[in-house]
Amino acid sequence: MVQRSREVQRLDRRSSHDVHQSQLIRNSLGDIISSLGRLYRGAGIVPGITV
Fold this sequence. Notes:
By secondary structure, this protein is mainly α. Helices cover 82% and strands 0% of the residues. Residues 1-20 are annotated as: Disordered.
Protein backbone atom coordinates (compact mmCIF):
# COMPACT_ATOMS: atom_id res chain seq x y z
CA MET A 1 0.00 0.00 0.00
CA VAL A 2 2.77 2.39 0.95
CA GLN A 3 4.68 1.41 -2.18
CA ARG A 4 1.65 2.15 -4.37
CA SER A 5 1.09 5.57 -2.83
CA ARG A 6 4.76 6.39 -3.42
CA GLU A 7 4.38 5.48 -7.11
CA VAL A 8 1.22 7.57 -7.31
CA GLN A 9 3.08 10.54 -5.85
CA ARG A 10 5.80 10.12 -8.47
CA LEU A 11 3.18 10.03 -11.22
CA ASP A 12 1.46 13.09 -9.75
CA ARG A 13 4.70 15.02 -9.76
CA ARG A 14 5.37 14.08 -13.38
CA SER A 15 1.89 14.97 -14.60
CA SER A 16 1.44 18.10 -12.48
CA HIS A 17 2.58 20.28 -15.39
CA ASP A 18 0.05 18.68 -17.75
CA VAL A 19 -2.64 19.09 -15.09
CA HIS A 20 -1.74 22.78 -14.78
CA GLN A 21 -1.96 23.21 -18.56
CA SER A 22 -5.38 21.56 -18.76
CA GLN A 23 -6.50 23.62 -15.75
CA LEU A 24 -5.52 26.82 -17.57
CA ILE A 25 -7.33 25.68 -20.71
CA ARG A 26 -10.42 24.72 -18.72
CA ASN A 27 -10.38 28.08 -16.93
CA SER A 28 -10.14 30.05 -20.17
CA LEU A 29 -12.92 27.93 -21.68
CA GLY A 30 -15.03 28.62 -18.61
CA ASP A 31 -14.36 32.35 -18.99
CA ILE A 32 -15.38 32.27 -22.65
CA ILE A 33 -18.54 30.28 -21.93
CA SER A 34 -19.54 32.48 -19.01
CA SER A 35 -19.00 35.66 -21.06
CA LEU A 36 -21.05 34.11 -23.88
CA GLY A 37 -23.74 33.29 -21.33
CA ARG A 38 -23.68 36.90 -20.16
CA LEU A 39 -24.08 38.08 -23.77
CA TYR A 40 -26.95 35.66 -24.29
CA ARG A 41 -28.66 36.81 -21.10
CA GLY A 42 -28.17 40.42 -22.13
CA ALA A 43 -29.82 39.62 -25.48
CA GLY A 44 -32.67 37.84 -23.71
CA ILE A 45 -31.69 34.40 -25.03
CA VAL A 46 -31.27 31.64 -22.47
CA PRO A 47 -28.18 29.54 -23.28
CA GLY A 48 -28.47 25.77 -23.10
CA ILE A 49 -24.96 25.44 -21.74
CA THR A 50 -24.63 25.13 -17.98
CA VAL A 51 -21.17 25.08 -16.43
